[in-house]
């Protein structure tokens, strides 16, 4: 299964957000979308999730145009973890995770299949222990896991995560990244918008680097996250090196002197 | 207690409040004389029965609309008046009284429904693509406009009696309504209630915010239509037969949430029952108060509701602080 965007463009009125993006996302990989604020990362993700209708070009899942898919069908294949970790009512963690089953539900109540998927998602994210606690009483790290469990409960083929690490401490960020990696290893397609270049270097299989609404570079971490590209896109002076253990590390020294 | 037992209890309480409303008043009418061919039997059939039925329906409509709107706007301070439907229906009714159309059969009802209907259309146009914010702003504008126009009509009333009739009607009451009023309003209310009860799953999905709900396949545009139509029909019809009764839609969902938890779909039916219980009980108690004339239901609700609303605001602010 592949997600593809062809010549994709998006604009709010006169303001162009995305311009002629061509990219292919593969299942079984963690694809990271990078780019400075305002580069169009979230917009690209929203087009992939079918939330926004591209102004030009197409986003498709295999051969089906995502914009034209029935919303419920699309929701069964593509799960989105939206930005901002919104939860509006003090529902229990389990009830929140159960929302992920909405695209699969017919009639009232949860089926045995729904219950199995909910239990599996909560076990994968280690959230069972606070199943009955209201989400409003959870810590940020716990809530992030519950919200990810909500996406997993829908058993989508694709998991799109918009800044899943925002406002989390490093330990919790690593938890979420490990969970996303595990999903990719299990054969799901995972696409995440990230701000942290260090994590992108260490965890991504494939990187898309956006700059001013255009796809500046895409490919493997080594090909895309280079000092030249970072200087051009982010305006930063950064170094990449291998540490004693052979892991590639990124060191940001400062802004590019102009 | 599990939810099924709780809901059974609420149903029983609704039945009790309904029976109380049938019996209570300056004259107590016991079930033994309900079918009797006496003055009591007449009072029961012509006055008490329509009044109790209206209390039941209006209370349920207001409670349910409040629960749906609070869920949709994800704002615990929303109530059926935020859409401006009540104010517009009230304006329609006031115009009917001003021109004496209320003397025609269905004149007042038709005018009030026309008011509600035009506010529904305007809302759908104003809030197109706007999401909840456009929706709530559109409702506020409509509400203010309808209020101003209503005040204008009162100010140009030809004589004090006409003005007092209008004001009296505006205050909201269930008195002196006939079975034919009930029968006219019921289809609109039933359709509105059916639409509103169908929103549960979409409201649940909105717990995750708008993008979360959309990514789950929920069509928010359609949801907005259903809510505007449902609230418009149900609340419009209830204002058309009883004037504006406030606070029920605001208070009841909160009381229900305290018992049932906060999941929006879980509180829809209980809020309808709770609204019916509150309205029927309040209306029965008002009849029992001593004094030559009854306090208007709309006024009583406001007097009871305002302090509750203030408490709510204080608690809400503390919660956010």
What would your notes on this structure say?
- With 258 residues, chain A is of the alpha/beta class.
- Chain A folds into two domains: 2-225, P-loop containing nucleotide triphosphate hydrolases (Rossmann fold); 226-258, no CATH class.
- Helix content of chain A is 32%, strand content 30%.
- Chain A has nine helices and twelve strands.
- Chain A has helices at residues 41-48, 71-77, 93-98, 112-124, 140-153, 170-185, 197-203, 221-224, 227-234, and strands at residues 2-12, 15-26, 30-34, 56-61, 64-65, 78-81, 158-162, 189-193, 206-211, 214-219, 236-242, 248-255.
- In chain A, the strands form three sheets. Chain A has a six-stranded mixed β-sheet with strand order 6-7-8-3-9-10, sandwiched between helices. In chain A, strands 2-1-4-5 form a four-stranded antiparallel β-sheet, covered by helices on one side.
- Chain B has 321 residues and is an all-alpha fold.
- Chain B has a single domain (54-320), classed as ABC transporter involved in vitamin B12 uptake, BtuC, CATH 1.10.3470.10.
- Chain B has helices spanning 3-23, 39-73, 85-98, 107-126, 131-155, 160-170, 179-197, 200-205, 209-215, 220-242, 248-260, 268-288, 297-320.
- The radius of gyration of chain B is 20 Å and the shape is globular.
- The model of chain B has no long low-confidence stretch (mean pLDDT 87).
């Amino acid at each position: 299964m592949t997600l593809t965007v062809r010549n994709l463009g998006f604009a709010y009125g006169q303001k162009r957000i995305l311009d002629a993006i061509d990219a292919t996302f593969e299942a079984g990989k963690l694809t990271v979308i990078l780019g400075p604020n305002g580069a169009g990362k979230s917009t690209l993700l929203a087009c992939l999730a079918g939330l926004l209708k591209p102004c030009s070009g197409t986003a498709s899942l295999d051969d089906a145009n995502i914009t034209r898919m029935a919303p419920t069908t699309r929701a069964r294949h593509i799960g989105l973890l939206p930005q901002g970790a919104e939860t509006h009512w003090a529902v229990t963690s389990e009830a929140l995770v159960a929302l992920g089953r909405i695209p699969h539900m017919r009639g009232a109540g949860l089926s045995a299949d729904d219950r199995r998927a909910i239990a599996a998602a909560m076990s994968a994210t280690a959230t069972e222990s606070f199943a009955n606690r209201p989400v409003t009483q959870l810590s940020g790290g716990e809530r992030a896991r519950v919200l990810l469990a909500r996406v997993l409960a829908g058993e989508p083929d694709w998991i799109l995560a918009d800044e899943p690490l925002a406002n989390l401490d490093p330990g919790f960020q690593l938890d979420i990244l490990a969970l996303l990696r595990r999903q990719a290893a299990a054969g799901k397609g995972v696409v995440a918008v990230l701000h942290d270049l260090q994590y992108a270097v260490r965890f991504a299989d494939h990187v898309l680097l956006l700059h001013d609404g255009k796809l500046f570079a895409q490919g493997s971490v080594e090909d895309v996250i280079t000092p030249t590209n970072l200087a051009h896109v982010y305006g930063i002076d950064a170094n990449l090196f291998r540490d004693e253990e052979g892991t590639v590390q990124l060191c940001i020294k400062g802004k590019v002197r102009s | 207690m599990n939810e099924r037992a709780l809901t059974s209890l609420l149903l029983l309480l609704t039945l009790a409040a309904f029976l109380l409303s049938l019996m209570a008043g300056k004259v107590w009418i016991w079930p033994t004389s309900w079918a009797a061919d006496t003055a009591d039997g007449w009072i029961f059939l012509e006055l008490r029965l329509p009044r109790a039925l209206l209390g039941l329906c209006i209370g349920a409509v207001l409670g349910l609309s409040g629960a749906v709107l609070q869920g949709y706007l994800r704002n615990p301070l929303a109530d059926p008046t935020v859409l401006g439907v009540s104010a517009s229906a009230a304006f329609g009714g006031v115009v009917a009284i001003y021109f004496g159309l209320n003397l025609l059969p269905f004149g007042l009802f038709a005018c009030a429904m026309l008011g509600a209907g035009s506010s529904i259309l305007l809302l759908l146009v104003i809030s197109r693509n706007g999401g909840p914010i456009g929706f709530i702003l559109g409702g506020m504008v409509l509400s203010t406009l309808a209020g101003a126009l209503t005040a204008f009509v009162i100010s140009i009333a030809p004589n004090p009696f006409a003005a007092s009739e209008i004001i009296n009607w505006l205050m909201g009451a269930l008195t002196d309504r006939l079975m034919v009023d009930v029968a006219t309003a019921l289809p609109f209310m039933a359709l509105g209630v059916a639409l509103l009860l169908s929103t549960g799953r979409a409201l649940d999905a909105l717990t995750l915010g708008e993008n979360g709900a959309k990514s789950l396949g929920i069509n928010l545009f359609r949801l907005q239509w259903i809510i505007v139509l449902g609230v418009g029909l149900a609340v419009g019809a209830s204002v058309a037969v009883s004037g504006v009764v406030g606070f029920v839609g605001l208070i009841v969902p909160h009381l229900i949430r305290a018992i049932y938890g906060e999941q929006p779909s879980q509180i829809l039916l209980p809020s309808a029952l709770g609204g019916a219980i509150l309205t029927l009980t309040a209306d029965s108690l008002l009849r029992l108060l001593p004094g030559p004339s009854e306090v208007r239901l709309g006024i009583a609700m406001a007097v009871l509701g305002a302090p509750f609303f203030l408490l709510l605001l204080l608690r809400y602010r503390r919660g956010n602080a």
